[in-house]
Amino acid sequence: MTDAAENSDGRRWSWWAGEMEKLVSGPRAGDWGKPEVYTVNEATRDAVILAARAEFGSEATIHIVEATQDGAFITDLFEPDDRLLDAVFDRFAEQNGDRFGEDGFQGDLSHEDLAAALNAALASFIGERESDIVTWRFTEQRNGEVIAAEPSE
Q: Among 42, 34, 36, 37, which Cα is nearest to 13's?
């Protein structure tokens, strides 16, 4: 991937291009469909157009878009009413059963506190490894444009 320019919003934006194809079936048959995959990536609009022409040929209709893959991951996954939290407390009680005696676990551990702790741990874990996570979709895009095929001579 080409080095992207950091924007005023702190995210890295770059230009992507993909080859458009005519839809062959369905209600939009004959229309141009946006690319399913954008495979050409460059830092500037002009550079992505040149690279796309080299990749797809001058007779291809291409779609370009300025896009970013940056953005925070959603890490607040646990809610106080999550059944998974019941399983965590049950496993805790099961693994430490010998310490609790015949009445079993008794204590005041709240689902709210556990949910908050798990969300904080997940945010920290993902934050430390964010550069190791491969993403395939854009988190935002703008300035999409169709670049028509160049007429053949």
A: 42
E strand intervals along 7-150: 12-19, 21-22, 32-33, 40-42, 62-68, 140-147
Asked if residue 130 lies in contact with residue 73, where contact means CB atoms within 8 angstroms, the answer is yes
Q: What is the pLDDT of residues 53-80, one digit of tens each?
A: 999 999 899 999 999 988 888 999 999 9
How far is Cα 107 from Cα 76, in angstroms, rounded to an integer? 25
Query: pTM for this structure?
Result: 0.65
pLDDT per residue as tens digits for the range 19-37: 988 777 778 777 777 888 8
Residue (of 143, 141, 120, 132) closest to 11 by Cα position: 141
Per-residue CA distances from 147 to 16, 36, 54, 60, 136 (Å): 12, 16, 14, 9, 23
Q: What is the pLDDT of residues 119-141, one digit of tens each?
A: 999 999 999 998 888 888 899 99
Q: Where are the domains of the chain?
A: 5-70+135-147, 83-129
Instruction: List % helix, strand, coil for the chain (3-state, nearest 5).
Output: 35, 20, 45
